[in-house]
Amino acid sequence: MPLATDDFLDIDDVTPAELDALLDRAAAMKAGETDPRLADATLGMIFEKPSTRTRVSFETGMTRLGGHAMFLGPDDIQLGHGEPLKDTARVLGRYVDGVMARLFDHEDVEVLAEYADCPVINGLTDEAHPCQTLADLLTIRETVSEDATVAWVGDGNNVGQSFVVGAAMAGIDVEVATPADYGMNPSVFDRAAEFGLDVEPTTDPEAAVEGADVVYTDVWISMGQEDVRDEKLAAFDGFQVNSDLLAGTDAKVMHCLPAHRGEEVTDDVLESDRALVWDQAENRMHAQNALLVELLGEE
Ligand code: CP
Ligand code: NVA
């Protein structure tokens, strides 16, 4: 089923039915199903920030699909030396079949999509990480249940914001606990409500995890926030996902990775049977391969 959207900038660029079909396709591709549509296709990958999972999963994924991915780091292309983003977009669109971009400002990925004459995929901005959400939903489907309740405990930025909307689209119940000054953008809850999920965010992690099947967290110091490290560490005191917070629950633990052990999560929790993090990381590739064939491929 080709997608109606031209670009994938956040999770609700697809419909709930398209999301469900993408997850079905991801599971089938994980089980070995192949798709010939991207043989010889090229994906340009722009990175303003570092990456392990996003870079390797997209590059390996394109190879598995019979195509090719091109890493374009900040020092590799003229974008890092003053060429405007819209010019970069127009030129890349003349060469490649799709662009995946990891940028700081969400508005920049929108500019990229406006000017590039090819599909654009958001590989993380400060506001959203929809490819992570695809993998997360596949992981929950495989290991817990689509009737799961997930407690988001931690920062209210990119990974959490896309996850709440995606969970709403998939019918997953979500509780959200963030420090008062690091909550999600209220528009996230409005978007979740459009899919029937009523979220009442709290500043109390213990209240959020009560009855949760999964506790999901992310780093406290996101890429680009190193200069506010001390004030964020103080604000997130009490939000660590550790054995005390999980005591009395059978909850699994999710984390998009990279993890900062001893800050948002403890080593013993990440190394325990509760952790779904390695499945999440693997599922990035399967979920993205489904997205790539449906967004870039032609019927
Ligand atoms: N989860 C995630 O996007 O990881 P990377 O920063 O390693 O790509
Ligand atoms: N919130 C983190 C996610 C990394 C995948 C960051 O933006 O650095």
Describe the overall structure.
- By secondary structure, the chain is α/β, with parallel strands linked by helices.
- It has two domains: 11-129 and 284-296, Aspartate/ornithine carbamoyltransferase (Rossmann fold); 145-275, 3-Layer(aba) Sandwich (Rossmann fold).
- It contains twelve helices and eight strands.
- The longest helix has 20 residues, at 277-296.
- It binds phosphoric acid mono(formamide)ester (CP) and norvaline.
- Norvaline is lined by residues 124, 157-159, 218-219, 222-223, 256.
* Number of self-contained structural domains: 2
Whole-number mean pLDDT: 97
What are the secondary-structure elements, in order, as H or E? HEHEHEHEHEHEHHEHHEHH
The biggest beta sheet is recorded as: 4 strands, parallel
Query: In what range is the share of β-strand residues?
Result: 5-15%
Summarize the structure.
The chain has 299 residues and is α/β, with parallel strands linked by helices. The protein is built from 12 helices and 8 strands. The chain has a 4-stranded parallel beta sheet with strand order 2-1-3-4, with helices on both faces.
